[in-house]
Design a protein that fits this description.
Blueprint lengths: L4 E3 L3 E7 L10 E2 L3 E10 L9 E5 L5 E8 L12 E4 L9 E9 L8 E2 L1 E5 L8 E3 L3 E3 L2 E2 L1 E2 L8 E5 L16 E5 L16
Parallel strand pairs: 1-11, 2-12, 3-14
Antiparallel strand pairs: 2-4, 4-8, 5-7, 5-10, 6-8, 9-13, 15-16
């Protein structure tokens, strides 16, 4: 950082699927809203409180900052690409966790990298910026497919030259597709008009 001090080995970061009990974001479903939990831990060897942190999402991942809980530490400056945590007050050895929703992209080439930095100030100001010593779950992969939610229907007429006539019955082919345009299962009725 130009004009600032960047130090490492001051905190640990863990990102995982909520309720999974692990720090892993591998094989996330594509084009789906997923609940993640971010845990930040101040190192016990560091004598100063860790007060603020910014978690940055990889390209194509969309954070919903309004879904973050508890919301007490989530700053209004949070956006679809970053979660800004403020007034953490983490003493040496202490940790806190924030759960939030993120919408995954349709595909990721290799690993999608999250990043996180922290500061000893409550409002993320000042020239000293900390990078984590241990990170787990900050490299995400997305499973092929695009999830099971139906977002569109593709309708194919009986033949390329088919012309519908008022009152004439015909049988089209209807395919349910998810947010990535991949065919998916559908239980229900599609009405064509």
């Amino acid at each position: 950082l130009a004009g600032g001090t960047q130090s490492s080995k001051y905190f640990d970061a863990c990102l995982g699927v909520t309720g999974a009990g692990t720090c892993s974001t591998q094989n996330l479903p594509a084009a789906t809203s997923v609940s993640l939990t971010f845990t930040i831990t101040n190192k016990s060897s560091y004598s100063t409180k860790l007060e603020s942190a910014d978690l940055f999402a990889p390209s194509g991942f969309v954070i919903d900052p309004t879904s973050a809980t508890p919301s007490t530490h989530v700053a209004a400056s949070s956006s679809s690409s970053e979660l800004d945590l403020r007034n953490l007050g983490l003493a040496p050895g202490a940790s806190t966790a924030v759960t939030f929703n993120v919408t995954t992209p349709c595909q990721v080439s290799g690993y999608a990298k999250w990043s996180v930095t922290a500061k000893p100030t409550t409002n993320y100001s000042g020239s000293t910026t900390f990078t984590p010593k241990n990170v787990n779950g900050l490299s995400s992969t997305v499973a092929a497919g695009g999830g099971s939610g139906v977002t569109q229907f593709a309708v194919v007429l009986p033949s390329p030259s088919f012309t519908a006539t008022a009152g004439q019955a015909f049988t089209p082919t209807v395919t349910a597709k998810n947010g990535c345009g991949t065919a998916t299962g559908f239980n229900g009725t599609a009405t064509l008009t």
